[in-house]
């Protein structure tokens, strides 16, 4: 058995959980700022493997000599940013949470720049949903695995919904002020999220998700908790898109009327892309933090059978907990 030497890191640090208190918005925000840090994409394969070894050794009771607590937490977040929590597989680069800001900056920026022509509207909405499918598959839950058929159905449905919304609204806004037309991509993305996420998590809507007591002991599966969790994720994803898809159009609409941009039209695209990126750097982690990852639901809102089962076995329990997903 491992014996702790003088000055060596203790083995009781819980690196299964985030470093900061997830019951507070600030704690969740700090966690997601770390998880979505795009700098993690620049790490080499050797650095990722070194972090994986530190984390796996620590979990096995072996402390890397000279390791500090800050280095342990850094290794844990690097490991979490690149490897799937259930399967342990290395996640494809664009499917990682740290790729969210640069990928969404590029795709969202292009959706806002090329919103006038039908072929470009279709292409960028399709590319956005293709990227979403990669992210959803890469971050799938091991508890409710996604089949290739479910993934394909969600992908086709979301892409169709996004393109149909974009083209439908584009034709409706032809005779309205140009600023209104700039918001069409956001409406399409919001519609696609409402389709994509429930379809991607349809198994949870059929069989429910695990609910636990405060100590983490599983009490059963609830469809009501799944519906609440999926609703929270849809809200978070739509809110995530609002700053990047609502603020730059207003700014660009004003700037494009000024002589500065009229004389330098080539500045329009990089300026819009930069504005989108700036908004996403803050919106992505802050909107992920809107709801606790471990959310709660009152027992009275559960299905009658599960409610009766919990009240019979644990009459003192009033609130149960579940993982809402991302």
From TrEMBL:
UniProt keywords, alphabetically: Amino-acid transport, Membrane, Mitochondrion, One-carbon metabolism, Transmembrane, Transmembrane helix, Transport
Organism encoding this protein: Bos taurus
GO molecular function: L-serine transmembrane transporter activity; monoatomic ion transmembrane transporter activity
NCBIfam families linked to this entry: mtc
Transmembrane segments: 230-251, 271-291
Membrane topology field: Multi-pass membrane protein
GO BP of this protein: one-carbon metabolic process; serine import into mitochondrion
Annotated localization: Mitochondrion membrane
InterPro entries in the record: Mtc
Family in the record: Belongs to the sideroflexin family.
Superkingdom of the source species: Eukaryota
Coiled coil (UniProt feature): none
Protein name per UniProt: Sidoreflexin
Catalytic activity of the protein: L-serine(in) = L-serine(out)
GO CC annotation, single: mitochondrial membrane
Gene that specifies this protein: SFXN3
Function: Mitochondrial serine transporter that mediates transport of serine into mitochondria, an important step of the one-carbon metabolism pathway. Mitochondrial serine is converted to glycine and formate, which then exits to the cytosol where it is used to generate the charged folates that serve as one-carbon donors.
Pfam families: SFXNs
